[in-house]
Amino acid sequence: xxxxxxxxxxxxxxxxxxxxxxxxxxxxxxxxxxxxxxxxxxxxxxxxxxxxxxxxxxxxxxxxxxxxxxxxxxxxxxxxxxxxxxxxxxxxxxxxxxxxxxxxxxxxxxxxxxxxxxxx
Amino acid sequence: xxxxxxxxxxxxxxxxxxxxxxxxxxxxxxxxxxxxxxxxxxxxxxxxxxxxxxxxxxxxxxxxxxxxxxxxxxxxxxxxxxxxxxxxxxxxxxxxxxxxxxxxxxxxxxxxxxxxxxxxxxxxxxxxxxxxxxxxxxxxxxxxxxxxxxxxxxxxxxxxxxxxxxxxxxxxxxxxxxxxxxxxxxxxxxxxxxxxxxxxxxxxxxxxxxxxxxxxxxxxxxxxxxxxxxxxxxxxxxxxxxxxxxxxxxxxxxxxxxxxxxxxxxxxxxxxxxxxxxxxxxxxxxxxxxxxxxxxxxxxxxxxxxxxxxxxxxxxxxxxxxxxxxxxxxxxxxxxxxxxxxxxxxxxxxxxxxxxxxxxxxxxxxxxxxxxxxxxxxxxxxxxxxxxxxxxxxxxxxxxxxxxxxxxxxxxxxx
Lengths: 120, 415
Hints:
The complex is a heterodimer. The longest helix of chain A is centred in the N-terminal third of the chain and has 29 residues. Chain A starts with a helix and ends in a 7-residue tail after the last helix. Chain A is mainly alpha-helical. Chain A is built from three helices and no strands. Chain B folds into two domains: 84 residues, no CATH class; 317 residues, no CATH class. The interface between A and B is large, with 72 and 91 residues.
């Protein structure tokens, strides 16, 4: 199969994959009873009335985890072509890969020493 | 015979029957998609029973045994019950996102099945970048979680969703880095290529540290114990799916079971030889049987771990990832790359002619295995020294803080 028809399969899959789990939900929507009232639809907070705003403040630590994840995610994406071509290349490839990984690991060590990786 | 592989070569059969070629191509793709997508959904229904029975037996009780013989009809009873439950949408929820998120979560798992090779001639589509596609698609589920938490209009759902997303994105790094090693060993990212490269020797023996890393990261990605803060009922009151009821809730959990089974399939494909097994050359469909057998073994191990280990706290979880798994996966990758170069220089890599021969692969496997053992020993040494350092620091602190009894104080003053 040529490349376009390969991705056509993925394209059709992308369209069908949401449809298949949605079928039971739609079926449930047809069969199940529907008797909404205010108490049932109230937001759940351990059985008491809700206190304060729903959309709470975002803890900064999540942002830091996201940043470090981003760095390593891009590194990982760039490592895959290196890994695929590795067998055909000579020792220089190992050195280049090592340097690349080392630079990014250095960033991880820096974040570690600055306690940026701790949860609190 | 051209009509042997249903998924890919359905089109020539239709064209022979007189259809328009483009339409026949589209129809064959559509048929292939339906076949590949319904297989995991049907398996998930059976998995509900397997999961509950095995969990029960490990916990020294019987599990479902009322509905049908041995409780085998339990999943059907569950599905019927959940379909009939009322769908309560909380007030103030974001309707579209609220309804879409269980579907998107399950969709992200289903999409993985497009690239899994079922047998030497059956595969949904053999993408050149199969492994990268898998990593990309598995990340869509993370999006579904934050959609669920945000749109529920519930601060506990939101807090739960934040923690879940932090866990999921963190554990993607060792997952992906541990997958670079099989790609390194096989020289291709295509899933079929990875399975074919294991014809001589499974990657489990060549790269055990990567296999364990992938297993742990996959366990964390699905939110299974010991990383199951996501579904911890006693914390955060059931987390991001508090406000879901009825079939939507069921689809969340079906998605999770499917994800665990998909991880089992991926372990089988990437590390234990996929569809390879006795007599596969003669009867290709037997490859599917071997694959399901291997995936079931990995699924069982995953359930075993789940039912045996206690839960990790969120800060323990994150430190475990960033301070142990990520450095370990980086070191493992570098060691494997170095050893691959060494193996090639020494000339003990099997030539292309006998790449499928078990005996020819043994020398290089030995080198890789010893390298992995060395990495593991290094890890244990680091942990031991770190533990010793912390223990000594604690003991010094304890000694310094211990209050002196009057007799001791007098003795010390008169020294």
